[in-house]
Specification:
3-stranded antiparallel beta sheet, mainly beta, two-stranded antiparallel sheet
């Protein structure tokens, strides 16, 4: 992946309605590409809310560093624990 193409193309969000008193949005995050193990690191400014479903979207426009071709959009969903 070409790290220069991540800006504004990585989105982290909660899925579904927020429980009473819970935040509607995830904490601010920074994104960096770790070349050594070819990993995308998403670092949140604060912990995620407990027992919430979270979705990570890699949006259209992220490019391959190998052949400079666009990568297909991708989503990952998981649930936080307690």
């Amino acid at each position: 992946m070409d790290p220069k193409t991540f800006k504004d193309r990585v989105r982290v969000s909660y899925v579904g309605a927020a429980p009473a008193g819970a935040p509607d949005t995830v904490p601010a995050a920074t994104v960096r590409y770790v070349e050594g193990n070819r990993a995308l690191e998403i670092k949140l400014a604060a912990p995620l809310d407990r027992y919430r479903q979270v979705k990570v979207d890699l949006l259209e426009g992220i490019m391959s560093a190998v052949d400079n071709q666009p990568l297909a959009p991708y989503s990952l969903t998981f649930t936080t624990g307690g």
